[in-house]
Amino acid sequence: MINGHGDDLYRYADICYNFSSNIYNRFCHDGLYECLAAALPSVTNYPEPSATALEAALAGSMGIEPSQVIATAGATEAIYLIANMFRRSTSFIFQPTFAEYGDACRIYEHRIKPVYSLNIATEYAAAAKEDSVWDERPSALFWLCNPNNPTGMVIDKEEMVRVVSSHPNCLFVIDASYADYTSCPTISAQEGVALPNLILIHSMTKEYGVPGLRLGYLTAPSALAEQMRRLRMPWTVSALSMRAAKYLLDNKAKYQLPLEELLRQRQRIADAFAATKVIDVWPSDSHILLCQLRIGHASALKDWLAENRHILIRDASNFEGLDSSFFRIAAQGEEENSILINAVREWINQLMTNI
Amino acid sequence: MINGHGDDLYRYADICYNFSSNIYNRFCHDGLYECLAAALPSVTNYPEPSATALEAALAGSMGIEPSQVIATAGATEAIYLIANMFRRSTSFIFQPTFAEYGDACRIYEHRIKPVYSLNIATEYAAAAKEDSVWDERPSALFWLCNPNNPTGMVIDKEEMVRVVSSHPNCLFVIDASYADYTSCPTISAQEGVALPNLILIHSMTKEYGVPGLRLGYLTAPSALAEQMRRLRMPWTVSALSMRAAKYLLDNKAKYQLPLEELLRQRQRIADAFAATKVIDVWPSDSHILLCQLRIGHASALKDWLAENRHILIRDASNFEGLDSSFFRIAAQGEEENSILINAVREWINQLMTNI
Questions:
Q1: ipTM associated with this complex
Q2: CATH class of the region B30-254
Q3: What percentage of chain B's residues is helix, strand, coil (to nearest 5)?
């Protein structure tokens, strides 16, 4: 890890409304807590070194083979595993985006090239040596987050499949952590494993609202997954998290995102912010909203909201390519969102009064 | 991870006596369970990305600086972090030992040289280029587990300090996971951070009997720790494990190992096994006992004990340099140990009858 991160809730004693992490925070976890309470003595035994049972359960839930799944300690371990597997490669990273792709690539000595559109990326890819399949390693890696963090934007699925299929010499790494948070079509795990040059990263953190458990996984064709499996540390998923993962998969029905409502709420916030004339909102296809202040600093807004209204937002200034005017929020329930909108308006009013 | 591991309890439905992992299993965890039960909602928030608060607490408990501690997901993450930091180095690994040093070094492209005694190692070190301090990287790394797994042996402390101090061009990595399990003096964390070319690996798993939590840490001079910190993934320690770690440090008094009794028990088992004339026992300075069958295979003994007596031992045949005649046990309570001794005698009797 090189740069800072979003959900710094642990820094604050009295946050009541957390818009800072991109996670829906209104799931009911009572069943999960019961399951974990009963499983506490599992802390006295080693978990499975390679999370084989969890990988089989994940594969079953997606209709793919266990050999096509690697369970990881959050999506983060998947990112580092991929960067490690292809160390010293050329990596194109779509910006602005989650900092860990770049950090992991820097740690594993990749040559990093930021890119800002799929068209430009495909030109690069076309310029790279075109083999039908790579020999020892791909000509280049392309890292995308889709839906993207911090913008919430989704790349057209057909276009994405076309680009991946037509560049077999390149490896595409798509972080699908937010796939549940959009109504736009995206490449599923089942579709993904059929593409020999695509790895998908998934996040139980986002799917089930449980960032504290550190649960993620990647899906890839067996041949690729098998190579990465050998680089993985043993026992990265704790015994309790392993037990929790089984519960979550068995109780997926309890974790249905109210997606339509969430997207409606995101639009309501976007409209309210835009109406202030002080905030530019970026287009989004998910619950995530990237916002830019025309006056003032995101850090000042963040501090004011935390101190005066117990609200946490994400200062987005440390995303590559963004500056101190950017902040990010993730839509939550209607009532919370109203509290956010009103508080932001209030801050803007004070700001305008003081000018 | 490349090779297999010890505690494969998860494979068996009905083990009652687990001698397979090197962990004392009779601590009372009631307070820990209460603490975790109250902390379950922490799964809905991200833990601290770098476990800063945990590192401060660990440093406080050892009387060193927070900058000299890196909290990790088990000792394993520490091993991989060190191997990653010094990738493509020459690594001398004392054998037989825990497989992960070798696996981590292979993954990070070290040139691996197995060594079998400290004298030989120091000859290598002397032959390596001697700078007072290394420039870019050490001339070589030396990996030792002390007390060692699977032998339980401890290297003389004065000799160890002398070797480390007199080879400033080399980096020594000592896995001190079992330091609590011996009465022999070993280098403490406080003494260790004063040596610029020494990293100590520690294991809360072993100190508190909680392998399921995945809690470990390394201690090193600040300069070394700082470099490694940058290579670490964020959020490797789960929110519940973080909470548990705080509880364990605050309640260290409840986790006092009955060391004298444990060493006495180890000796009782060693004597009983030796008296069978069928088992050679290696000398040990800790609760760990490496045993070699003069006839029969360790895997057959292991299977018989699991199937017929609900006892799990460690087939040690996959340790480098050992073969199918080796098994390992860790002494537990008196009653359990008697059950183990009797069951092993029984198996030997059957074996002898069938010859």
A1: 0.92
A2: alpha beta
A3: 45, 15, 40
